[in-house]
TrEMBL record:
Chain ranges of the Serine acetyltransferase N-terminal domain: 3-38
Pfam families from the UniProt entry: Hexapep, SATase_N
Reactions catalysed: L-serine + acetyl-CoA = O-acetyl-L-serine + CoA
Annotated keywords: Acyltransferase, Amino-acid biosynthesis, Cysteine biosynthesis, Transferase
Keyword hit for Thylakoid: no
Protein name stated in the entry: Serine acetyltransferase
Enzyme Commission no: 2.3.1.30
GO CC annotation, single: cytoplasm
Source organism (scientific name): Nesterenkonia alkaliphila
Protein family according to the UniProt entry: Belongs to the transferase hexapeptide repeat family.
Any one GO molecular function term: serine O-acetyltransferase activity
A Gene Ontology BP annotation from the UniProt entry: cysteine biosynthetic process from serine
The protein's annotated pathway: Amino-acid biosynthesis; L-cysteine biosynthesis; L-cysteine from L-serine: step 1/2
Amino acid sequence: MRKLIRRLREDITAAREHDPAARSNAEIVLAYSGLHAIWAHRVAHKMWQVTPLKTPARVVSQVARGLTGIEIHPGATIGRRFFIDHGMGVVIGETAEIGDDCMLYQGVTLGGTSLEQTKRHPTLGNGVTVGAGAKVLGPVEIGEQSAVGANAVVVKSAPAHSVLIGVPAKDRKRRQEEHKPLVDPAHYELDPALFI
């Protein structure tokens, strides 16, 4: 139970840190559809890992989609402190892998380009941010601490600390002033009371 409460606090703190409009933890818990979608995904993903529960897992994910406007396949693997801001229209495919401390904006697609039963969705390293409307397609890998610009279409892998912009997206090395600070996981564990 302590681990669950720690994870919930971690998610709430991540939302506060990524959204300057957040006024309270209670508001985040009650009104952030991105957070609701992530929590529903965690339940669906656990079910997905148990073979006989794949259909119920899909049902949970579809109910969450209807309530939040965010579709996360229960097979997707998502790390800690993940945040979806203004999540309407986000789609995350079955074999997508998202590292810790990642953030997606509205309208992002982490989609596939193949009909084969294989790894066909993107992998995002730790600390990746994907801008509004961006499409990251196929089994590409986006290195840690990279940023994908709004409306970019990414179809090729990119190294760590890249900035990807355009259609199709081209990558360049992130300039020093564009780096975001690394997250200290201890910061999340020491978060003050849950509903302050």
